[in-house]
Amino acid sequence: MREGMVRIPSGCAISAIMNVKGIRFNGEAIIRSITCMHERSNGLGGGFAAYGIYPRFRDLYALHLLYESDRGRIDAESFIKDNFVVEHSESIPTRPVVSITDPPMFYRYFVSVRPDSLDALRGEDEAELLVRATMTVNNCIRDAFMVSAGKNMGVFKGVGFPEDIARFFRLEEYEGYLWTAHGRFPTNTPGWWGGAHPFGILDWTVVHNGEVSSYGINKRYLEMFGYHLTLQTDTEVVAYLFDLLHRRQKVPLNLVARALASPFWKDIDRMPEEERAMYKAIRMVYGPAMLNGPFSIIVAFNGGMMGLNDRIKLRPLSCGKKDDFVLMGSEESAIRSIVGDLDEVWDVRAGEMALVQLEEGGVAVG
Amino acid sequence: MARSYLPPEYIVDINRDKCRRCGLCVRGCGFSVLKWAHTDWQEKMGTFKDGQDDLGVVYQRIVETTPDYIVADSSLCRQCHYCVSHCPEGAINVIKNPVAYRANEHWAAHHMRNIWLQAETGGVLLTGSGNDKAYFSYFDHMVLDACQVTNPSIDPLREPMELRSFLGERPDGLEFERTPEGQVRLKTQLPPHVQLETPIIFPAMSYGAISLNVQKAFAMAAKASGTLMNTGEGGMHQDLYPYADHMIVQVASGRFGVNPGYLRRGRIAEIKIGQGAKPGIGGHLPGEKVDSGVSQTRMIPIGSDAISPAPHHDIYSIEDLAQLIYALKEATEYIKPVSVKISAVHNVAAIASGIARAGADIITIDGFRGGTGAAPLIIRDHVGIPIEVALATVDERLRREGIRNRVSIVASGGIRHSGDVAKAIALGADAVAIGTAALIALGCHVCQSCFTGNCSWGIATQRPELTARQDPERGAELLTNLLRGWSRELKEILGALGLNSIESLRGSRLRLRGVGLSKQELDLLGIKPAGEGA
C-alpha cells in the first residue's frame, strides 16, 4: 500500500543547520548530522530541504517533481506548460547508490506564472496559484508528484537511509544557507518516494518527529478551508496548518507556534488581562488546529526556520549556536557532530519554539 | 367505569416477617400503592365494652393483640423503587409480574396491555422519560482508540488534562495588530461565547415539569462545576436569579415566563423548536400542577393548563426563525449567544445548516432517546432518529459548507456515561447535555411516570410533601459529584488517546471505530470499521 492510502506512524530523526548571515555552504554538514542519528531511522525514508541553492533562478519557482512513468511526466509537463512559463528545465542529477533500488525519475522546472493565469486568479496571489497547482498535480495526475515548489529552494527525498539519499542526490554539490534533514522509522513499508519527508508547500518545508494524535480533527479542520490531504502524514498537516495560519490568515509566526502548541489554560489563566484574552481567543478559534501528541518539528522557509516542541515535550529537540550558525537536532550529538565547541546549547522546552531568521540574525526563544 | 382486566405490571412483595410496621413506605409512595390495613376497630372495641378498662388501656390491648399491617395495591405501582430504597428493614421488593402472556413474537405483552388500556379509556397513551424500545444503539457499536508504542499515552494524574470548552460562534481566523510599542495584540473582536469547564451541561427541564428544588440543585451544581443548566420553557423562578449566569433561558412556543428581564438575566437564550422525545409535538402542563410558584414564574393563572403549541405560531419557516433569533439578539443587545434546539429528524443536517445561516450561535440537537416530562407514547417510541447519526451528519454537513465555525453543537438524547460523552465529542459535538442521567443521580429510577405528577422521588411533581424530599444542597452535591466523576473519566480517556486537551478529540472521528455496522452506517457516522488501521 502506498502512502496516502493508509496512515503510517513513524519515529524519526530531524536535524537542521542555518547560517543567519545567509552565507551558503554545501550539504556535507547536514549529512554528517543526520548520519549521526542513523539508529533513529530504518532505511525506509530520508530527505533534505535546502534553501538558497538556486541563486541563478532566485526569482523563479523551482518545481521539483518525481515521476513513476513517462506518462506521468508527459501529463505533468503539459499541465505545467499550461499554467507557467518554463524558463529552464532539467532532470535532477543523481548518482547510483548500491542500497537504493528502483528510484523514480526526478525533474526540476524553473518557472514563472503566466500572465493570463494571474488574470484568472481574480485577486488572489501567485502563492495561491502555486498551492492549487501542487494540489492538482498530486491529486489528479497519475504517477507524478510535486516534491517542492518554492523559490530558490528544493526538497530531495526518497526511500532509503538519509545518508544514502544524500549521496544519491549529490547534495555535497549544492550550496545553501539553510538545510534541514529527516530520517524516518515508519512502522510499515510505504516504499513510495513521494511519501518521504520533508514535506513542502510553496517554500515551506517541514521535518517532523512524532505522531500527531489529533490528526483526525486537524485534517477535517484543514479540509474546511479547501486543503486536500493526500498523504495522510502528520508532516503534511503541519505544513498546511502553517500555510493556512501564516500565509493565508497572516497570523504572526510566533503566534502560529502558540496556536499549534498552545499554552495550558492553567498558565493562560495567570496571564495579564490583554494577553489572557489573546491566548483564549487563539485556543477558542484555533483549537481544532492544535497539534496534540508527541512531536518535535523544524519548519523551514525562505529566510528562516522554526523549531517547535509539543506541549509536554514527548519528543526531543536540541538547539545549538556557533558564530553565525544555528543548529537543531533530535539529539545534541547530531549538533555536536558538526560543531564540537558550541557557543551555546539548549533544549527547546515543552510547547515552546526557537525561531531563527536571516539578517536580524538573532535567535528568538519562547 | 367497568372493571379493568389488566393484571398489574409489577407485584409489590412485602415480607411480613421483616416488616417492622414503621409506615415509611406508606408515607413514601407517591402513587398510593401502599396502605395500612387496619383491624376492624369497631368490632374489636365492642369486645371490650363490658369490661372495667378505660379507653387508653383498651387501645393498648388492641395494638398488642392485633397489630396493623401494610398491604399493597400492585395495580398502582410504577416500579419507582422509592419504597424498596427506603425500607429500613429491606422488607419490600418490587418484581415484574410473572404472569405469562401467551408467547408471541409479534404481539408482545406491552402491545396487548396498551390496547386494553385504550379500549378502556379511548385516550392517547402518555408516558415520560425517554424511548425505551430496543432500537439499535450506535453508541454501543462504536469503540475508542488508545496509544501503544508509536506515541505515548498520557497519565492524567501527572500531566495537565484540559476539558475547558466553549459555546458560541467562532470566527474562521484571528487578526492581530502591532501596538505603537511593538507589542502584538489581538484585533479581532470575538462574538459572544460561553466558557464551560467541562463539556457537559444540564438540558432544558422546566419548573412545572420538575420541582423547584430540583431546578435549584441543577443551578447550584452548574455554578459549582463551571457549566450550565437550562430553565426549560417554564420561566425562571426568582430563587434562581443568583445562578442566572449559569443558566440557559428557554423560549418555547408557549412563551411561558418570557420577558425582557428573563432574557437579559440568562447566559444564553434558547429557542426551543423541538424535543427528541416528541418531535413535532407541543407540551401540556396540567392545571393541577400550576400552583402559585409555577403560576408566578410562568405568568399564567393558578390552576390553568399551560399548553405549548406544537409549532411556534410565529415560525412557519426558516426565515421566521431568523427573525426570532434576531429579536432575541436585539433584546439581549448582541452580548449573548442564541441557541436553537431541535429534535433529531430525518432531514436534520439540512435543517441545522439553515439554522446556522439564520444566525443561531448554538444548535442543540436532541436525539430520539431524549427524555420528556410527558409525551404521547406512540410519538416517543416511533418518531425521530438516534443522536449519534444526527450529530455526525450535522457536523459533516456544516463542515462541507464551511460554516461549522459559525455554530457550536450541543448533542443530547440518551447519553448514559462518560464513554458516550467521549464518543459524541469525537463525532463532533462541542458539548453534550445530560437530562435523564442527571435525574437518575437525584434518585430517579426511570419509571417513566413523570406525567402523573406523583413522582415519589420529588423530582417530576409539584406536590409539596413530595418535592420536600429533594434537598437542593444534597442534590447539588450529587450532581456535582456526577460531573466530577465523568470529567475525570473523560481525562482518563483523553490520556489513553495520547491527548491532553478535549479540542483535540472534538470531531476527531479517526479515534472511533465501528463494530458490527454496515458500510453505509459507517459512512454516515464518518468512521472506519474496527480492524482497519489508521
Tell me the number of strands of chain A.
19
Structural class of chain B: alpha/beta
By CATH, the topology of the domain at 10-53 and 152-202 and 298-365 in chain A is Glutamine Phosphoribosylpyrophosphate, subunit 1, domain 1
Fourth-tier CATH superfamily name of the largest domain in chain B: Aldolase class I
CATH class of the largest domain in chain B, named Alpha Beta
Structural account:
The complex is a heterodimer of chains A (366) and B (534). Chain A has 366 residues and is α+β, with helices and mostly antiparallel strands. Chain A has a domain at 10-53 and 152-202 and 298-365: Glutamine Phosphoribosylpyrophosphate, subunit 1, domain 1 (4-Layer Sandwich), CATH 3.60.20. Chain A is 29% helix and 31% strand. In chain A, the strands form four sheets. Chain A has a seven-stranded antiparallel sheet. Chain A is globular and about 60 Å long. The model of chain A is unreliable at 361-366 (pLDDT under 50). With 534 residues, chain B is α/β, with parallel strands linked by helices. Chain B folds into two domains: 10-101, 2-Layer Sandwich (Alpha-Beta Plaits), CATH 3.30.70.20; 199-529, Aldolase class I (TIM Barrel, Alpha-Beta Barrel), CATH 3.20.20.70. In chain B, 31% of the residues lie in helices and 16% in strands. Chain B has an eight-stranded parallel sheet with strand order 11-21-20-18-17-14-13-12. In chain B, strands 6-22-23 form a three-stranded mixed sheet, with helices on one face. A two-stranded antiparallel ribbon of chain B has the order 1-4. The model of chain B has no long low-confidence stretch (mean pLDDT 93). Classes of the chains: A alpha+beta (366), B alpha/beta (534). At the A-B interface, helix 6 and helix 10 of A face strand 9 of B.
Short description:
Chain A is an alpha+beta fold and 366 residues long. Chain A is 29% helix and 31% strand. Chain A has a domain at 10-53 and 152-202 and 298-365: Glutamine Phosphoribosylpyrophosphate, subunit 1, domain 1 (4-Layer Sandwich), CATH 3.60.20.10.
